[in-house]
Each structure stands twice: as C-alpha cells, then as structure tokens.
Amino acid sequence: MYENREDNESVFYEMTPKRNQKTETPILSEKKLAVYGATAALLIISAKLYYQNEDYLKQLILETKLVSYEDILTDGDVMLTYVWKNSVKYSQFWLPLLCGILVTYFTWLMVYLDSKEPGIQPPSPFSPKKNRSRSSGPLLHLNYVFPLLLGVSVASYSYYKGLSLEY
Fold it and tell me: TM spans, by residue (predicted)?
C-alpha cells in the first residue's frame, strides 16, 4: 500500500488529530481540588466526633437491650418443652413411619451399591429409559422391590406394637 517508511509516518501523523496545548484542561482542576478537600475535611470531622462520643454511640447502637437474658432463657425453655411434649404426644404416628422410611432407604442403598453396575445392571426404577429398555426382563426387579416391602413391613410392625417415645 505505502512504498516507503517515511510515507507511512507522514500519513500516520496526518490521520492523528492535532491537539492545541493551550486549550487542554489541567489534570487537577480547582473544582476537583475543592471536592477532595471537602471530603477530607468531612472525614476528619466525623472521625473526631466519633471518637469523642464513642461510648455514647456504642451504648445507643450496639447495647440496646430489648429483652432481658432471663426472658430469653425462660421463653426458650417454654418453647422447647412445648415442642418436645407435642413430638412425644404424636410420636406414635411419625416414629414408625420414620423407621420404615429409613429401613427402606438403607436397604435400597445396599441393594443399589451391591449390584453389578449400580443403576444399570439390573436397572433401577429411577434409571433412564434407555438403560431399562436395554435389559431383558421385568421393568421392576425383585432386588428393588424387596427394600420397599421391608420398609412397609417395619412400619406396619411398629404401628402394631405401638412404638412411640412416651414412657
């Protein structure tokens, strides 16, 4: 495009806009200097006011007691007692169900992890459809039905025996 270097330099300088040194604004103007000075003065004044009134401000902001510690302890004790009494009262319903769910979960986990390839051989009911259709046989294998039956039987037996937290 350009044949020699001198032509390139002259074209580059012609394309660059020229600046007038007299009209450029100074780096730090009087307005900026005034803003910086006012900010520094406000910081100094606010720090001085804070350190003069530090005790009063801490007492006003941080140490306001809305409730005494004795009230919190007694209210917490009352609430804990109420919750515990209700959980014991209704434990004959939720405790056997919780035991059945936990037995189902742990038995399912043992069967799942003990399989040849967990979730694939044999496929679990929660496996993707492509893994379930690849294997021959039933959609729900007996390996995965057994934990469900075990959990239901544990929960039923616990209901029958009246398992609860009451004594």
Answer: 93-113, 139-160
